[in-house]
Design brief:
Layout lengths: L1 H16 L15 E4 L5 E3 L7 E7 L5 H15 L5 E7 L6 H10 L5 E4 L4 H5 L7 E5 L5 E6 L3 H15 L7 H7 L1
Parallel strand pairs: 3-4, 4-5
Antiparallel strand pairs: 1-2, 1-5, 3-6, 6-7
Length: 180
């Protein structure tokens, strides 16, 4: 019981130390190439230029990652046929790949999965805690970071993705004059 209290307190502390919103100077490293989790084929991030990208970092030992996976599957259905790329990044080591496969049997992913066993991609984006989810706009700028998982944050993530895919029309001076 004491162990679970410690874990809960640790997640609370992490959530307080790492802000929910992203740092504006962060961007998607399009020059990186990841490895597809299943086929082991290269996945260049450059192929996602011009798209909204949602990235979820996870590992088999991460209990909150289970809920994050369910939410990420929901995003897949909510934004089906939209201009959104969803990538799950597994941070298990090669030695723990069998644990990741077991995790995926229990919590199947309905989105693309890549591996980052040396955590180079995670480090490039300052990801230190799992789950961590990042949203990048169509220009590749980091607009939101969710450290840990809870439903209220998840709803804000959905709203942010919707706003990025369907931005509100901007009102220009010529359209204001046309309305008068």
């Amino acid at each position: 019981m004491l162990f679970f209290r410690f874990i809960s307190l640790s997640f609370t502390l992490v959530a307080l130390l790492f802000p929910f919103n992203a740092h504006s100077q962060s961007s998607l490293p399009y020059n990186m190439t990841l490895v597809d989790f299943n086929s082991q084929q290269p996945v260049p991030l450059a192929q996602h230029r011009g798209q909204v990208v949602y990235i979820d970092f996870w590992a088999s030992r991460c209990l909150p990652c289970r809920d994050a996976f369910q939410f990420t599957n929901e995003l897949t259905h909510t934004f089906k046929n939209e201009d959104l790329v969803i990538i799950g990044v597994n941070l298990d080591t090669e030695r723990d790949r069998s644990k990741a496969l077991t995790f995926l049997k229990d919590y199947p992913a309905e989105f693309s999965l890549v591996s980052d066993p040396q955590k180079q991609f995670a480090q490039s984006l300052n990801v230190n805690v799992m789950p961590t989810s990042l949203i990048f706009d169509k220009e590749g700028q980091l607009v939101m970071r969710m450290v840990g998982f809870n439903r209220s944050k998840a709803e804000r993530v959905k709203d942010q993705i919707h706003q990025l895919i369907h931005p509100a029309p901007s009102v220009t001076s010529s359209s204001k004059n046309a309305q008068q």
